[in-house]
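User: Good morning. I'm curious how adenosine-5'-diphosphate would be positioned relative to this chain. Could you predict the structure with it bound?
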Amino acid sequence: MTRLIFLGPPGAGKGTQAKSLADNLNIPHISTGDILRQALKDQTTLGIKAQGYMDRGELVPDKLVEDMVAERLGQPDTNSGWILDGFPRTVSQADFLNKLLQKLEQGGEKVVNLEVPDDVVVARLLERGRKDDTEEVIRRRLEVYRTETAPLIDYYRKRKQLLSVNGNQSPEEVTTELETAIGS
Ligand code: ADP
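Assistant: Good morning! Here's the predicted structure, ligand included:
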């Protein structure tokens, strides 16, 4: 049973690694960024509410993403395990997730922290050129990461759930180190 949370700054390669690992393990890859981008494209109520925040590089309000994650983790395909990518992003989301997992009787989750230096992250994001990857928005997202999300590293370290992986190497090398870290 694999239950993993991926942490790391924007541009760390979380999405790529999380997706391929989930495919290999045949478990759902749950990316809150992907779900939100789809909602935005479909112009659902959720998408319309989230749009402004995403365009500015701000976090979407906790309640919106928490409802989304509760709904997703309640689906039957999560019984075989899951990888969460992009959630939690705040201490309050992490507290919410702890309670949710308790309620769903899903435990033993580990947290992978993909470590990548700031300058590398900025260069990668500028190259990627997604709609919300303009320099100003990137700077804002990094700032939000530092103040809101980075505290989760200590949070999970204290709970002895943290595994660190060097994200500043080739994708194949990251995969190898990741597989060793999670023991698969
Ligand atoms: P990144 O490339 O920065 O890892 P994601 O694809 O995970 O980006 O998320 C894109 C945007 O979606 C974020 O900048 C944020 O506005 C919103 N978002 C995604 N996950 C969350 C979350 N857990 N809490 C709040 N906002 C979120």
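The chain has one domain: 2-30+81-182. Residues 135-149 form the longest helix (15 residues).
Let me know if you'd like a different ligand tried.
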